[in-house]
Specification:
By secondary structure, this protein is mostly helical. It is 50% helix and 10% strand. Helix 5 links the parallel strand 3 and strand 4.
C-alpha cells in the first residue's frame, strides 16, 4: 500500500457509502427474502450439502472474513478460485441449479449479509481468496497506488463489469486501482446499474 492515505473527501464519501450499504442491505434482505428462501430450497432439493457456501476471502486492509454464497458446486469441489479450474472440471462440479444461479447471479444474494456486517460494500473490488490460493491477484493489487485493498470489496466492481471473465490478475488490479483512484458517487451509480445490464449481455465501454 506504500503508505498511501485516502483524502478527507474520499473518507467522507466512504462514510456516506457505508450508510447507503446498511440501508440498502436491510431493504434488500427484506424485499428479496422470498427469493432467497426459494434459492436455498432449490439448492437443498437438487444436491447434497448445505445451501450456503462459506469461504475465507480477503477484504479491506487484507483482513480475512467469511464470504457467503448459495452453493452452486458439488460439496467435493476443490477449494480454489473457479478461474483456476479448467472448463471440463467446472462443468462437472457445478450443479444444474448452480448453473442457473450463476447465469443470473442469484448465488450472490447471501452477500447482502456480508454488506450488512461491514465486510463488503455494494460496489468495490471483488474479494479474492487468501494467500496460498490467489497470491498473484493480492500481489498485483498491492503493487498499485492507490491499492484496491484500501476499500471494502464489493458485490460488483469496476473490473468485474469491464473484464467479465478475463482472469488476468494484472488487468483486474489495474481496473480495481482505477476505481479507487476515481472513487465517487457517480462512478458507483454507474457500476451498480451496469451490473444489472450485464446480466442481459450488455458490455460497457471504458
Amino acid at each position: 500500500m506504500s503508505g498511501y492515505v485516502l483524502s478527507r473527501r474520499t473518507k467522507a464519501y466512504l462514510a456516506f457509502k457505508r450508510c447507503v450499504d446498511v440501508f440498502g442491505s436491510i431493504l434488500g434482505l427484506i424485499v428479496l427474502s422470498p427469493l432467497m428462501l426459494f434459492c436455498a430450497l432449490m439448492v437443498k432439493l437438487t444436491s447434497k450439502g448445505p445451501a450456503i457456501f462459506k469461504q475465507k476471502r480477503v477484504g479491506k486492509d487484507l483482513k480475512e472474513f467469511n464470504f457467503y454464497k448459495f452453493r452452486s458446486m458439488r460439496v467435493d469441489a476443490p477449494n480454489v478460485a473457479t478461474s483456476h479450474l479448467d472448463v471440463k472440471t467446472q462443468q462437472n462440479m457445478v450443479t444444474k441449479w448452480g448453473r442457473i444461479m450463476r447465469r443470473t447471479s442469484l448465488d450472490e444474494l447471501p452477500q447482502l449479509f456480508n454488506i450488512l456486517k461491514g465486510d463488503m460494500s455494494f460496489v468495490g473490488p471483488r474479494p479474492c481468496q487468501p494467500r496460498g490460493i490467489e497470491d498473484d491477484l493480492i500481489d498485483a493489487r498491492l503493487s498499485y497506488i492507490p491499492s484496491p485493498v484500501l476499500v471494502r470489496p464489493g458485490l460488483s466492481g469496476y473490473a468485474q463489469i469491464y473484464l467479465h471473465r478475463d482472469n488476468d490478475c494484472k488487468k483486474k488490479a489495474e481496473y480495481d486501482a482505477y476505481y479507487v483512484a476515481h472513487l465517487g458517487l457517480w462512478l458507483d451509480i454507474k457500476i451498480f446499474f451496469w451490473s444489472f445490464l450485464c446480466l442481459f449481455g450488455y458490455t460497457p465501454g471504458r
